[in-house]
UniProtKB/TrEMBL annotation:
GO molecular function: DNA-binding transcription factor activity; transcription cis-regulatory region binding
Keyword line: DNA-binding
Protein name: TetR family transcriptional regulator
Coiled coil start-end: none
The organism's place on the tree of life at top rank: Bacteria
């Protein structure tokens, strides 16, 4: 039984790579089963549709993000150090789970309405927890809270792809990303906590 579960876990990893590289909408269940070396009936036994498999992979992604934030929460509460820990953890996850990041960003809209609602619930939970770690007493409305958490999460999760086409050494890429993320997120946190005045543009 353990060997069979291990084999199916490997199949899920292969499915993730196929979806992320080729595009979820371009892969049919029969093609997926053939790629995994499974009979279609065996695949349907575990997942009644491609969408169920996609949802499982996306849930896995958010569960890992939430577990990462949970570990950071248990560390000493120094705001500057906390931000650096959050940045480093997200950059590490991007290196460890690149296919998940791509799949979530590009293919979440392929899920049905109920599944998309589940993903939004997980996303909001993660984004709210992220903001609470970085800014425990935000001076924001409920909608402002959701927007700030979403903005910070978007920057953290998308920034590594901005440099994907540039052949940089790892240390140089990491330094650029850390400086970029620190500056952007500190500015956002300043507004979220009320420490920065609103900037108003005056038209002459």
């Amino acid at each position: 039984m353990a060997e069979r579960c291990s084999r199916f876990a490997e199949s899920r990893d292969k499915a993730l790579e196929l979806f992320a590289s080729k595009g979820f909408g371009q892969v049919g269940m029969r093609e997926l089963a053939a790629f995994l070396g499974l009979a279609p009936g065996s695949l349907y036994h575990h997942y009644p549709s491609k969408q169920h498999l996609l949802l499982d992979l996306i849930e896995e992604f958010y569960e890992e993000l939430l577990a990462t934030l949970g570990r950071i929460e248990r560390q000493p509460r120094d705001l500057r150090g906390c931000l650096q820990n959050v940045i480093h953890a997200h950059l590490n996850l991007h290196r460890e789970m690149p296919w998940h990041f791509r799949l979530v960003e590009r293919d979440s809209g392929c899920l049905n309405e109920d599944q998309q609602a589940r993903v939004r619930q997980l996303q909001e939970h993660y984004e709210r927890q992220l903001l609470m770690i970085l800014c425990p007493t935000p001076q924001l409305s409920e909608q402002g809270l959701l927007a700030a958490g979403h903005a910070i999460a978007s920057v953290l999760n998308n920034a590594p792809s901005w440099l994907a086409l540039h052949p940089l050494d790892d240390w140089e890429r990491n330094e650029l990303l850390e400086n970029l993320l620190s500056g952007a997120i500190e500015r956002l946190l300043g507004h979220a906590s009320g420490d920065l005045p609103d900037v108003q543009t005056k038209v002459a």
